[in-house]
Amino acid sequence: MSDGNGFTPVCPLPIQEYPHVLLAHGGGGRLMHQLIDAIASTFASAELARRHDGAALRIGDMRLAFTTDAFVVQPLFFPGGDIGKLAVCGTVNDLAMCGARPLYLSVSFILEEGLSMETLGRVVASMQAAAHEAGVEIVTGDTKVVDRGKGDGIFISTAGIGVIEHDRPIGPEAVRPGDAVLLSGDIGRHGIAIMAVREGLAFETEITSDCAPLAAPVLKLLEAGVAVHCLRDLTRGGLAAALVEIAQTAGLHIQLDEAAIPVRPEVQSACELLGIDPLYVANEGRFVAFVPEAEAERALSILQTEPVSADARVIGHVTADGPAGLVTLRTAIGTTRVLDLLSGEQLPRIC
Amino acid sequence: MSDGNGFTPVCPLPIQEYPHVLLAHGGGGRLMHQLIDAIASTFASAELARRHDGAALRIGDMRLAFTTDAFVVQPLFFPGGDIGKLAVCGTVNDLAMCGARPLYLSVSFILEEGLSMETLGRVVASMQAAAHEAGVEIVTGDTKVVDRGKGDGIFISTAGIGVIEHDRPIGPEAVRPGDAVLLSGDIGRHGIAIMAVREGLAFETEITSDCAPLAAPVLKLLEAGVAVHCLRDLTRGGLAAALVEIAQTAGLHIQLDEAAIPVRPEVQSACELLGIDPLYVANEGRFVAFVPEAEAERALSILQTEPVSADARVIGHVTADGPAGLVTLRTAIGTTRVLDLLSGEQLPRIC
């Protein structure tokens, strides 16, 4: 298509290498990043900084954050949540990671013919409950129906608008040597909860998803004037993917202490059973914050006042003298391991 | 789910009557409106007026419009457009129908494993071309992949933000007796173009979709100070569904003149062949505007300066003395026909 002025956009997808979309293109690893980068570069405008979680816009005198996510999780219901709660929390959390106060959400449903109305009703009610908990309003929506066998029950896309009430630049570019890396709580529960239901695994202790809205602890940090340098929620690709991306973009070295990273024993056991590394498992209610070392203790004590981040702790530091762009992990047995992006995915359709 | 304060939302879906979602629930008729009303009432906040096309929000000193749409059209490419162009135009047009200047779009893709990368690349490029033409920027996005057989190539959800630069209330409530009903051009082409490809029908003259952005003519009307009372694009359910909804909400009678409604001969023939009424066929680049009779001529001459609405004309009037809430059509042969919502749909998955 051309507009008559010779404007004919091209999307630089890796057609030669990958002629078809693979499940791995949705999995949070290298292939997904390659795909998203090609699409984003087609849309990119010179004026807008490309951000991980959403766009920061200026409209009139306001600074707004704008973000969207699609949700295709299977099963639709799992311990600790469902696709509706996930769709609300996911978009609320993307806004929070932009340092914005989430305000308004849109929702679009793609329903498969034959879906039980009772299921739809539960999902819609769960979305409203999650919106209420997160302090946002769902203000507009759309519904489409596809033929039986052309969908999978319910797909949901949410978009969100938030307001940015500070002028702090937040993102990997703002990360500085000496920053402490704060983690808001234990990792790996969301992905393992989904996997356990899907595989019919029963553990002694039921593993529930960590799915939760994260705006409250983030806004508390910002309102207290903590010099937050970077925020990132730990969704597809888990803690490892989030930190590798930040290290690469910042061009700095992140050194982690494995012993400081909380993983519940039942999650650890499940990971061992499934042959999965919890560092790469998706979370839906966990984030990292990069703050100057001198503010780490104060930031921790603020995070610990919110239930969702009560177990926050320092898990590592940013250094200028280590290998630039790398994340290294000092293991419990004293060795050092380099964390990298996986090429594909461990767990398909976990969000 | 409850937040501990006893807040347990319930979604009042018609479970007894319809235990399962039908294709007709997506078709623009009575069933779709029933479904959407139940979902919207679950989400509804007291402060926000419920609007057809999107939400009007106040953030700081700004008045913004916010809207979303899902797109599941089959086939992905059709004469005059493709799912990508449709996704951009659909959201741009919803913002325009709120009387807003479209600014920013988000896009989320749900891709089926096995989709050709070349197809994806064409759709992405088409979206960027359409965004360029409509004067909006696609600023944020998301991509998910579902297993083969759990999707249908590409589904797209777009959301959009626009700014409302006037303080005119625009909507069915603002419609007044004596208003002229302006139609921006010929109807029925989008739905019939899709149907023709799907059914393998060949006509002497190829029927191309009317898919196009509508913000330019709408903004020209508003900038010229025309007292626009209501705007509505003619998507699912076509001209008939749009006008029936407006008549019902306004509680007024709309009288149409069939001879004034332009339908191209090839569309008329195709409709006769398919047994479809063009008044109910979806359009993706057509709208109606309600303006005071005294401003109708000026409004028409403004619309006619934009290529997309060059063929605009007056097709009817609002009256206070006819049957309230009804749309009647004076046919070419002089009889009068009452237009009503269809219960289901004529053409599934046309957007």
From TrEMBL, chains A, B:
InterPro entries, per database record: HypE, PurM-like_C_dom, PurM-like_C_sf, PurM-like_N, PurM-like_N_sf
GO biological process: protein maturation
Domain PurM-like C-terminal: 176-322
SUPFAM superfamilies per UniProt: PurM C-terminal domain-like, PurM N-terminal domain-like
PurM-like N-terminal domain ranges (all copies): 52-164
Gene3D superfamilies in the record: PurM-like C-terminal domain, PurM-like, N-terminal domain
Family named by the database record: Belongs to the HypE family.
PANTHER family per the UniProt record, alphabetical: CARBAMOYL DEHYDRATASE HYPE, HYDROGENASE ISOENZYMES FORMATION PROTEIN HYPE
Name this polypeptide is given: Hydrogenase expression/formation protein HypE
Protein source organism: Rhodothermus marinus (strain ATCC 43812 / DSM 4252 / R-10) (Rhodothermus obamensis)
